[in-house]
Amino acid sequence: GKILEFYFVPGWNRSMVIAEVKSAEEIxxxxxxxxxxxxxxxxxxxLADFNExxxxxxxxYKAAEKMFPGPPR
Length: 73
What we know:
With about 70 residues, the chain is α+β, with helices and mostly antiparallel strands. It has one domain (about 1-65). The protein has 2 helices and 2 strands. A hairpin with a 4-residue loop joins strand 1 and strand 2 (about 15-20).
């Protein structure tokens, strides 16, 4: 993976990294491989592409629509 952006948060003793990786396991491996990795507390949050996520929802709703009949006529 690669680091896309890195921010340091003054006063909080924190930093924020946006990285592009193929899996959660890869980011954990990258962090734990750092010399200071064993002394760090970290949280990971996946980011999803909005358009791709919406395509998935639309496909799911269309499939659900086919499963149920429309209102009585």
